[in-house]
Amino acid sequence: MLNNLQTITVYEHVRTITGQMLEAAHIRDWEQMITLESRCTQYVNLLKTEGSVEPLSGDLRKKKVQLIQDIMKNDRAIRDITHPWMNELSTLINTIGTQHKLELSCAANNNF
What we know:
Elements: H1 4-26, H2 30-50, H3 58-110
Helix pairs in contact: 1-2, 1-3
């Protein structure tokens, strides 16, 4: 089990990593995003399995709330960047698929 200070430190790591993920998303470095997301997942799993169950005192509680708000802000900004890109990718895949079907259809019609 992590003590309260260790738990806060893990939240700080998550905030730092989500900030780095946001930077990677800005420059569309998807490989870096995947690497950072994996690291972030490890810390989140650590919080889930080993996080402190002790109630936090006033200052630590405020710190945890601020860290979570920062993490959520980074996450929202990442989603704002990645979702349009994912839509573009989906459109591109669908366009290529439609083009391929059209080519197959034309080839089939030429065989008759």
